[in-house]
Write a structure and sequence with these properties.
The structure is a single chain. The chain has 11 helices and 17 strands. The longest helix is centred in the first third of the chain and has 18 residues. It is elongated. It starts with a helix and ends with a strand. The protein binds zinc ion. The site of zinc ion has 6 residues, from helix 4.
């Protein structure tokens, strides 16, 4: 073996890193941390401004993270366009990830019990400052709905509260996960993937979803596409995707759908239900995932499902209005078991890390879901691209 000087340098560096990991100094930090941080602050409707703030002090339970990237969520787009949460001025971005550059002396492990060291890549989940029990990893009793998350907090005198920034201060009481074994694209996709891990867990409670189930997924935006990838990764082979856009249906095949149905090719629900049945070789679906926010799509989906089948409705992240169904034909006569799903729990977050590794191992190109990457300075453009419904997942990626 040829040991040259660069090998030796690498070995020395590794040994030094390990030593640092073994006995972290109080308030350990890595390299030089700039004296100011930059935050994309939403200061008005459709207007982000890059603000510069002094780098805050890192308390004994806090972690300073250098942000690497953050996905743009539909929630960010709603807030950008209409401020429905009344948060302006606000530092948005909740699908973020980055590298720990400084940590308080009390910080030792992540929320799953994994050690934390300077240089580790992390994500945050919900903040349960007022309910410390729920930050325990094995408690699965509450989903994140209604909890605080970074990126949807009111502004305060620290300002580093969202992931659309170059630094974020993760305060004590937050849930943090060490995800150093995932690449950047995978880490940006954790939050939306957790939504689907939760939905599939909800679906499993019906007892109807099995390896050989015929499963229809309606809606091929990021949510529906990730749903297909999860079903495929867990070994479900017989998947039909329904959408109105040929490009998205092609993507559905990449994620593992065997057959696709474009609803624009079929006039009326009878014809559409017939096409789904044909795609399954003459059978109705055993189980359906409804992944659109359209009330008509909710009304339609019952027609795809066999007697005794199941449905998971997860498309209505926000109030999308009322949907009409016929309780006799759609639910009673068919004896359909329905579950709803909204956001995720802490446990789902940890399951998601393993899913991302398995999906990669079986060759599903999940990273292709990120169709647009913008630097922080172009955040207004990134949000406009999202509003125009161009591409799939849009991300802010720092240099
Ligand atoms: Zn989100």
């Amino acid at each position: 073996m040829d040991i040259n000087s660069s090998n030796i340098e690498a070995i020395v560096r590794q040994v030094l890193t390990e030593m640092k990991g073994a006995s972290p100094a109080p308030s350990a930090s890595a390299g030089s941390i700039p004296s100011t941080a930059h935050v994309a602050m939403l200061t008005g409707l459709e207007k982000f401004e890059i603000k510069e703030y002094p780098m805050p002090a890192v308390g004994d339970d806090d972690i300073l993270v250098r942000v690497e990237g953050c996905g743009v969520c539909g929630t960010d787009a709603h807030e950008f366009k209409r401020d429905p949460f009344g948060l302006i001025p606000v530092a948005l971005g909740h699908e973020g990830t980055g590298e720990m550059v400084k940590m308080g002396k009390n910080v030792q492990k992540d929320s799953a019990g994994k050690p934390l060291t300077i240089g580790d890549k992390v994500v945050t989940c919900m903040i349960f400052k007022d309910n410390p029990d729920i930050t325990m990893f094995d408690l699965n009793k509450q989903n994140v709905g209604g909890a605080d998350v970074y990126g949807l907090l009111p502004d305060d005198d620290i300002h580093l509260n969202g992931w659309f920034s170059d630094y974020i201060l993760v305060r004590g009481g937050s849930t943090v996960f060490n995800v150093s074994d995932l690449d950047l694209d995978s880490r940006i996709l954790i939050e939306p993937c957790a939504v689907l891990i939760h939905a599939v867990e909800r679906a499993k409670t019906t007892g109807i979803l099995r390896f050989n189930s015929r499963v229809v997924v309606q809606g091929c935006g990021p949510i529906g596409l990730i749903c297909i990838a999860i079903l495929r990764t867990m070994g479900i082979e017989n998947i039909v995707a329904v959408d109105g856009e040929a490009k998205r249906l092609e993507f559905a095949k990449l994620m593992g759908a065997d057959h696709v149905v474009n609803f624009k090719d079929h006039k009326g629900i009878e014809a559409l239900a017939g096409a789904v049945k044909t795609a399954f070789g003459g059978y109705e679906a055993d189980f359906a995932f409804q992944c659109t926010g359209s009330p008509i799509a909710h009304s339609n989906i019952y027609k795809f499902i066999r007697n005794g089948g199941g449905l998971c409705e997860l498309g209505f992240f926000i109030n999308g209005g009322d949907a009409t169904i016929n309780p006799h034909f759609d639910i009673c006569a068919k004896e359909i078991t329905t579950v709803g799903s909204w956001v995720y729990t802490l446990r789902d977050y940890a399951t998601t890390f393993d899913f991302l590794k398995r999906a990669k191992a079986i060759g599903l190109p999940l990273e292709k879901l990120i169709t647009h990457k913008y630097p922080l300075e172009q955040i207004n453009e990134a949000l406009q691209t999202n509003l125009k419904m161009e591409g799939l997942k849009i991300a802010i990626v720092n240099k």
